[in-house]
Amino acid sequence: MKKLITTGIMGLALALNACGGDACDDAADKLEECFGEAEGNGEGGEEVECSGAIECQANCTSDASCENITATFTMGADNSYSQCVAACGG
User: Fold this and answer.
1) Which of 2, 9, 24, 35 sits CB 3.0–4.6 Å from 50 for a disulfide?
2) Beta carbons of 23 and 62 less than 8 angstroms apart
3) pLDDT at 89
4) What is the DSSP letter of 83?
5) pLDDT (tens digit, 9 = 90+) per residue, 29-60?
6) CB-CB contact of 7 with 46 (8 Å)
7) Which of 24-28, 59-63, 64-68 has the lowest mean pLDDT?
8) Cα-based distances in Å from 41 to 11, 63, 74, 75
9) In this structure, are residues 41 and 14 in contact, taking their beta carbons and an 8 Å threshold?
């Protein structure tokens, strides 16, 4: 289960960097704040619509602490951030 959530969140990070919209832009900024700017951040890729599950996940990201975000990405932690993202579906 943790591996599935972590895989989904990694996909979220890639999608957020390629989507437009305030919630997605804010989430991409939050990920950059937590992890620093990464190479190949999705710019120039196909834009993803920031709505539905993607927008929900973006809101989870914007509202989460960097501590919870990094724990989820690096250790597959089950915390309020990973639970919020999982609840969004998608």
Assistant:
1) 24
2) yes
3) 85
4) H
5) 999 999 987 655 455 567 778 899 999 999 99
6) no
7) 24-28
8) 12, 21, 18, 21
9) no
Q: Which residue has the tokens 């250790």?
A: 75
Orientation angle between helical segments 22-35 and 52-63, nearest 10 degrees:
40
Cβ count near 22 (within 10 Å) = 11
Report the residue count for the chain. 90
H/E stretch holding 48 reads: strand 48-49
Instruction: Answer left, alpha or beta for residue 37, where phi above 0 means left and psi between -120 and 50 means alpha.
Output: beta
pTM reported for the whole predicted model? 0.71
Structure tokens at 76: 């597959």
Residue 43 per-residue DSSP state: T
Give the position of tokens 């832009």.
25
* Separation of alpha carbons 61 and 66, rounded Å: 9
Question: pLDDT value at position 1?
Answer: 47
